[in-house]
Amino acid sequence: MLARKSIIPEEFGVPGLASRMPRKPVFRDRVNKARFIAKNGSCNLAHKNIREQGRFLQDVFTTLVDLKWRFTLVIFTTTFVSSWLLFAMSWWLVAFAHGDLGQERERELDLDPERHNRTQCVPRDKSFTSAFLFSIEVQVTIGFGGRMITEHCPTAITVLIMQNIIGLIINAVMLGCIFMKTAQSNRRAETLIFSRHAVIAVRNNCLCFMIRIGDLRKSMIIGATVRLQVVRKTTTPEGEVIPIHQIDVQTETALASNSLFLLAPLIICHIIDKNSPLYDLSAMELQCSDLEVIVILEGVVETTGITTQARTSYVSDEIQWGHRFVPIVTEEEGVYSVDYSKFGNTVKVTTPRCSARELDEKPSILIQTLQKSELSHQNSLRKRNSMRRNNSMRKNAGGSGGLRRNNSGLLTPKVQFFTPTEGGQNLNAVT
Question: What pLDDT sits at residue 230?
């Protein structure tokens, strides 16, 4: 039996209408991507399969400075002890070659100690232990006075000169390494702080990407500059995949080609225009993207003259759309005060959720948004004024009620007059 055909045509049915309706774009969930720069500024990069390891030994000083403290201290101790042992062996060989360690020398020492000391290379150098102690005295220049070389042994004089020169070289290298590790520029970067989140909001009628930076020390950073880079995975038209594609982002200070005067916390602003990599991203697309914004702050330390660099990064989850940083600098008793407890605090503001490209194509969106923001601001002001007015009225009402209660005791008391009636039984009270 054939199925009965419907009276309504198929193109006007529910499946046909649903197929012709415009579909909204579907955004996939963002894959958790490893960040290139950590929040503390360290690079999340591992070097593997390096075949030419000898290149690190060609620059020994930089290699020692880059090592961790425990390895540096081990190398420091091992180098000095090894040099002392090496020259202790040299002094023992010199004494042995000169014949200062035999039994005959011991007999001469018993018979004539003063003559024996004059003919010996190193007096009182009887064993390897005494040679080791003499090596430490020579290299560290302690000079206890019990052991010394004589002019009867030119070989000992040569060993003394060699140990002094090599000891000075070891002291210069090791102490310079320790000094450079303690005075590294990244130590100064610990007091250069960045806001925890970045914000995107309308500023001067433009959609802007903003962060806040600050310096906790009173000593300033001279010639401070800030650079922004967007790191993302891109694919060229030829099909080449670039896993870490770095795109420079211009800031207002970079356009003015002037350095920052980092006396108080500053807000670094990037205008999202046609040259910006954020130009085509809306609020929804930003949350689903895998981009990472890297911030690099460079400058010269005022006290040491060493160039320092502080780094951080912001992934899409750390960029707040429609927020603005709260002001933290106030004037108190003729002095500007900075409240660092509010350094990263933000407040919501009315911001279009579309991309900067759509704002350029449709300026009415920004105008409507600004009008709504102005209306909401006026409503909030009205609410504040009404609340203040109600509070003042309540205070005035409370004050007048208290006066009434206080003056109630000063009122004249009621006087009752009783008039006798005919029966003499009932009394009428007249006030």
Answer: 92
